[in-house]
Amino acid sequence: MKTKSIFALLLGCALAMPALAQDNGGIKQDAKDAAHSTGRAAKKTGHKIKKGTKKIVHKGATHTEHGAERVEDKTKPSPTPPPR
Length: 84
Known about the structure:
By secondary structure, this protein is mainly α. The chain is built from two helices and no strands.
């Protein structure tokens, strides 16, 4: 009876050792990797927004110039007829 108890205790300790010796460095590294990925995604998104905004502003300026030219053509005085 005593031998069975000792055997069960030793077996339990042997199975528990890997769980107790496990290092939590993996969790820490996973958190770091997630933070770096989030930072890269935010940076990439910022660059895309900047590029899109720049494109829209330039396109708007072009259309404004085009509209101003059309208005300018309409507001020019008509040529006066030559004197008689």
